[in-house]
Write a structure and sequence with these properties.
Number of helices: 3
Order of helices and strands: EHEHHEEE
Structural class: alpha+beta
Shape: globular
Number of strands: 5
CATH superfamily: Beta-grasp domain
Largest sheet: 5 strands, mixed
Strand content: 15-25%
Length: about 90
């Protein structure tokens, strides 16, 4: 059984380092949590490795709801990845 492609959106310096604002990806079955996704993306090439060089700092939102990296992404239609935000 294959998963439906998911829209991955990148924000701030994650987007700048990868060079893409978004892309549609078919995720492997081994990608179950937000953290799994970040680690899998980091293996996709040099720009991804640079963007996710500090994986624990990356924030994840699944279908516009923030999740912790150890939470499942389920059958997400959209996943957003972004660096920590600072308030002001």
């Amino acid at each position: 059984m294959s998963r439906e492609p998911v829209l991955i959106r990148y924000f701030a310096w994650v987007r700048e380092r990868i060079g893409l604002a978004e892309e549609q990806l078919s995720l492997p079955e081994s990608v179950v949590t937000g953290g799994d996704l970040v680690r899998w993306l980091a293996e996709r090439g040099e720009t991804y490795a640079f963007a996710f060089e500090t994986p624990d700092t990356i924030r994840v939102a699944v279908d516009q709801l923030h999740i912790e990296q150890d939470e499942p992404i389920g059958e997400a239609r959209e996943i957003a990845l972004f660096p920590p935000m600072t308030g002001g």
